[in-house]
Amino acid sequence: MIITKQILNLFFGIQTNRKKILSLICIVLSLLSLSLLSQTKFKLVSQFRIENGFDDLTLWETKDDLPVIAGIQYQTGLLYFLSPREQGFVGNIEAHYFSEPELKKEILTGKESAIYFPYGGDSFSPDYTGDSFGARWIGKIKPSHSEKYKFITRTDDGARLWVDGKLIVDQWKDMGTSEFSGELVLVSGKEYNVKMEYYDSGGDAYAELLWESPSSSKSTIRKIGSLDYGYSLINPFGTETNWDANYFKGREFKESILKNKIDLLNFTSSTEPFSKAVPLENFCARFSSSLQVPTSGDYSFFVTSDDGVRVKVGNQILIDQWTWMGPTEFSETTKLKEGDIIPIEIEYFQGGGGKYLKLEWQGPGFQRTLLGTKGKKERPASAISLPLYPGKVFSYDLNSDNKKDLIFTHPTYSGKVSIVFQNQFGFLKNPSELKVGKDPSDILFLDLDTDLDIDMIVRSKSESQFYILWNEGNSFRTEQGPKWKEPIQSMNILPSYSKPNPNESAYIVIGAKNDNYAKLKWKKPNVWAEFEPLSPPELNEIKELISKDSVLLSSEKKCISYQKQEICYNKTKQEIQIFE
């Protein structure tokens, strides 16, 4: 069986000298030492590659002979990792499912790696169509720390939880999705019996068991050794301190109305104020900080402003555009010397109407990015509640902000797609979920309505159906597309071959069995045509591209053995593949 997990782009930009490589590895190792995976030493095996002009570093770590696959996108300081869970359930969880809430009529048993079931309007099995059911899960947990743990049930409807024979949650009643908790002191390395009972009386259903402690962030309790997603953030280049922000009435810098500290100059909303006490119109602001130059060379500063703006670096005013205007970008380049601490000051005014202010920079060893405070910021996976069982994980810039957003499919239970946006300097927002029928599988990314935001087409694996997710800024709406007439098991979207046609109406290519391909056109406004055959030239082009891809997919892999699995990074597809 092959389980494919799309992982994030692993490109970053630094010079390929020895000093830089060693410096980067030190940064990554120091960051990993702060994560949950840092209780013992890591054995570092790194591979340094150059592809398409960018430096691509993939880290293959082992801890206690368990692999940690990590990649870093250096220009924004994003570190993503795929790693094994180190505390949680010992072995699989024994699962019993019942056809009624009283837990008397058992109809199915099984093994689970976690108690996490966002059923929605579905149940524990596609073969069970009833709207009322129950479950009992039994297992053993082993904590990593000797301290007090809080156990949290998150359910819709009732739940009961026993740990070490003690009933610590007893909420056997109808309710919407709610959390209840109980606490116990546990000893590191000791195994404890856990039993959770659950029922759903109708409507939407949800069941999850989580825990947290002083040494462990809140997360779903999963089987030890199961793979988990996480990420941490660093900003290797940037200002020494936060920006000191001082806001004034009018445009004369005389009557101060607010002073505070901010991470970034990235004010792009026309409806939200720069800060709560700052008016939407007729104000000015002064932002000041300092930066230590990482490497001698040319540095470019980019500012986009509506209305006037001045940029002062050191003693030099690089940009002086103190006038009324719509959002306009200006840039200048200056030479800076390694080690120098340079003051930087931005002055801005808003004279009425729209407002906008964004400051970016670029220099030796890193691409254009927002100028923010350097340092380390950690975000455990649980902080944004990533889906536990993603069918695939995609990375794509959905809203044209030059940052990769995350898209997860939920194929097993809920028929949903989760979308995680990055805001400002790489901070991830909690995911929004959209229902897309049964078993969402392939995703095609395409700007269907030419509004610069990326829309998505998702196919349903167990239905002959497509769903279109229209991106409207940072929100999505779902619309059903036309059905596919061929057997669904042999069909997939071919994103590499999607093209805009001459009149800007997009079409996608669908492949099925026996070299049966078809294209699907989109007709404005938001209307889909039926499938139609490819022309002979189009079909030949598709087959040629598929043939080339088949050769590429058979190579350029790096694998690690883990228990009875092979975990491979496919360089061509930029994804993690797990072979059992």
From TrEMBL:
Alphabetically sorted, this entry's keywords are:
Membrane, Transmembrane, Transmembrane helix
Could you name the domain of life of the organism this protein comes from? Answer: Bacteria
Q: Where in the sequence is the signal peptide annotated?
A: none
Spell out where the chain crosses the membrane. Answer: 21-38
Identify the residues that the record assigns to the PA14 domain, covering every copy. Answer: 88-225, 238-375
Name of the protein in its database record: PA14 domain-containing protein
Q: What is the lineage of its organism?
A: Bacteria, Pseudomonadati, Spirochaetota, Spirochaetia, Leptospirales
